[in-house]
Task: inverse folding
């Protein structure tokens, strides 16, 4: 069975994506999210992720929480921060896949109804050429509402915003991106 490095943003998104790919690939999970703020939120999401995947028996890697690099780069163009955020996390995933000699990579962001799928797919395809890997894309948004009950039953921590401090503020301001 081919291997797939799955970038994971949180436990709830991991549920459906792991379920979708587990019969197609040998999965290795990569939690890399320096965009998540404040730090307590990051810790809560990481804790929930670990508890969930350890219960399933999956191998995982925790990437560096490099919030300084994230903020330094995002501050250059706050309005387009999502582009940088996708690039940062997918690039780190592609580099990790290359290092681990795993030819396929993807992200749990392909499950979220709140993410820009065309941009994620485009960035993944560019990186796949750069690193000579395969970016595996499926539009899994249709599973979002189907799996909500399962996520509630698993009692996983469910966050109320994307992860960055800007999205948390926009949530209270009612801004949709």
Result:
């Amino acid at each position: 069975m081919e291997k797939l490095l799955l970038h994971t943003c949180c436990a709830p998104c991991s549920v459906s994506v792991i379920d979708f790919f587990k019969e197609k690939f040998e999965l290795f999970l990569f939690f890399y999210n320096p965009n998540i703020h404040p730090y307590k939120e990051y810790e809560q999401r990481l804790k929930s992720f670990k508890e969930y995947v350890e219960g399933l028996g999956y191998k995982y890697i925790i990437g560096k929480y490099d919030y300084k690099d994230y903020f330094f780069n995002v501050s250059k163009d706050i309005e387009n921060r999502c582009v940088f955020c996708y690039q940062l996390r997918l690039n780190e995933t592609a580099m990790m896949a290359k290092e681990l000699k795993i030819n396929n990579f993807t992200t749990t962001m392909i499950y979220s109804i709140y993410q820009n799928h065309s941009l994620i797919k485009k960035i993944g395809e560019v990186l796949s050429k750069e690193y000579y890997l395969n970016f595996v894309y499926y539009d899994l948004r249709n599973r979002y509402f189907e799996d909500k009950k399962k996520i509630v039953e698993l009692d996983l921590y469910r966050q109320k915003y994307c992860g960055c401090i800007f999205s948390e503020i926009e949530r209270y301001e009612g801004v949709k991106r």
Residues 74 and 80 are 8 Å apart (CA to CA). The radius of gyration is 15 Å. The mean pLDDT is 92. Residues 81-100 form the longest helix (20 residues).
